[in-house]
Design a protein that fits this description.
Blueprint: H1 8-15, H2 30-36, E1 37-44, E2 50-52, H3 53-63, E3 72-83, E4 86-95, E5 99-108, E6 115-123
Parallel strand pairs: 1-6
Antiparallel strand pairs: 1-2, 3-4, 4-5, 5-6
């Protein structure tokens, strides 16, 4: 997927916020995470499991209640306008040099504040062999 040059500023703003929930500069307290997502936020993990807003917030509380570090690398960012103030951001995420996934987040800026409405991950690397699965161009 390519980004319309008119959306370069949006792409820069949103790619600075991803991976979602993994930028301490935006806060690590529950209230910070609540302010990052819409009230109807939900997520589909790379496992295919659906997660509610409440579940995600509980997991984040647990994760950040102790020292937490990660070795994640995100690249191949692209953004597309879906509707007034609503954008689809896609990217690839390499987690711990072991798991490669394609990620997408629907971001809403209709109130003037960026809030994630939906997030999804899809594995694009075979977890058994470590080889990259055939990935169609986006």
């Amino acid at each position: 997927m390519t980004t319309d040059p008119a959306l370069t500023g949006v792409l820069e703003e949103l790619s600075a916020r991803e991976p979602l929930f993994h930028h301490p500069e935006f806060g690590v307290a529950r209230a910070d995470f609540e302010s990052m997502i819409t009230d109807d936020f939900w997520e589909v993990g790379a496992s295919g499991q659906c997660y509610s807003r409440a579940f995600v917030l509980d997991v984040l509380d647990e994760r950040y209640s102790k020292d937490y570090e990660e070795d994640w690398q995100a690249d191949d960012f692209a953004v597309r306008l879906l509707g007034p103030g609503v954008y689809l951001l896609t990217y690839r995420l390499l987690q711990g040099k072991k798991r490669l996934t394609r990620r997408m987040t629907i971001w809403d800026n209709s109130t003037g504040l960026w809030k994630a409405r939906y997030h999804q991950g899809t594995i694009i690397q075979d977890p058994k062999t470590g080889s990259q699965l055939d990935e169609p161009a986006c």
